[in-house]
Structure formats: C-alpha cells, structure tokens
Amino acid sequence: MKILYPEIQPFQTFFLATNSVHQVYVExxxxxxxxxxxxxxxxxxxxxxxxxxxxxxxxxxxxxLFDQRGSGQSTPFGELNANTTQDLVNDMEAIRNKLAIEKxxxxxxxxxxxxxxxxxxxxxxVVLGLVLRAVFLARQRDLAWYAKDGANRxxxxxxxxxxxxxxxxxxxxxxxLCQIFWGDDDALKAQAAKPxxxxxALTALGNDYQPKALDINERSFLxxxxxxxxxxxxxxxxxxxxxxxCGHLQHIPAIIIHGRQDFFMSYRGGF
Length: 271
Prior knowledge:
The structure is a single chain. Helices cover 38% and strands 17% of the residues. It has 271 residues and is α/β, with parallel strands linked by helices.
C-alpha cells in the first residue's frame, strides 16, 4: 500500500530565467514558513508530478518542486543546448537564492539522487540533510548493466521485444538508439520508442509495473533524446565521481531508502 499525504495545490509558481534559452518551472506548496525541501525528479526528463508534493507533510515543510531543464513544464521542452548536470546544479542554487533560503533539505530518487549528490558535493554548507531513494550513481558500469548485459537476464522477454524494435541487430543499444532518434525516420522512432519506454518503466518498478497504453508522439521522442543525451555524455560526470565525493559529506545527515523493488537500482547505485 502506498500512503501519501493528501493532495495539495501550489501556493506559488514561477519560471526561473537562466542565462540561456531555458525557462525553469518552479512551484511551492505546503507551509510557506516550514522547513524548505527541494524535490529532484528522475529521468532525466521525467518531470515533476502532483503526487510528488505528497511525499512531505504540508504542515511541516515548504515543498519546492522544479522541472529540470527541458522537462515537464520548463521550456523549451526537450532542449539539449545548455543542458548538463552542472546547469541543473546552477539552477538549484539560483532557486535557493531567489527564495532567500539559507539551508534546505534535498530529496532525490534515481537520477534525482545522483543530481542530489552532485549538488551537495558542491554546496555542502547549504544542505540540512539528504534523503535519497533508489540511488543511482551514474557510472558506466551501471549504465551497461541497464542497457547491455545485466537487466536483460532478469527481464528477457521485454529485452527481446526491445531488440526486435531495432532496424537490425545491435550490440550497442544506446548508440543505435541515438542514430534512430537523431535521424529523420519518425516511423522508426515510433517503433523503438514504446519498447524503450516500457523497458525503463519495467526495470524501475519491477513487480509493481502495470502495462499500459503509451501515447507515442513528438514529445516522447524529445524525452528519449534527453535521456540519451545524458547517457551518451556519461551524465556529465567522471567515472565514480559521486562515490569519491561522499567521503567529504559525512557531516551531513542522510537517509537512503532502498525498497524490495529497488533491486535494479540497488546494483546501479552500488549499495
């Protein structure tokens, strides 16, 4: 059973201007005088959802959600220029300064957990604590387990469907997908999009995954391109950068939550 706090609406929304084409959507809900907590969504490019506000007690927390560059309600959707991990970290600091927050709690899951660790490594003095869920360390070994050899042994049926969606057999799935989604053949993109999105949902949710009809459109293509943009650029991190930075963060209170269905992320996270 999933137990969340009651549905709430934001009391403030705005778009954060950047030094680029990006306009970053930010919303505040809960208690304006409560403990500030910033929520970092996964993906990259999955965006925030109304239920994300419900992770936090609205009487105790000032809940800050933002859609990372090119995601959700941020504009332009799917824009890859000036869209790196460091850009996202800079946006977080710009949000904190705009809201005149001295210190805040940082909450992230999956890719959001990786982003949280990058942020706190650079700005440890402004972090009250960390809550990390389904940790992902964005290493090449983690990505290879997901998209080459590892998860395919756990979900072989869906893996075979994904491989069958490619125009020809491939031993380098990510490179092949990049060729497809940076190409001009929309029919081929649509053919590969559904199995790829299904693969991501299945490996993230495990036994909780429920097959559903997917509306594949241009927005789907842009979302996938952003995922691939980060993956092909090693998430703009050096190998093992996040683990190497953790030794300097021992003074920051942290909670790591790994559930039974997080076995996949458990390997990716290295814990």
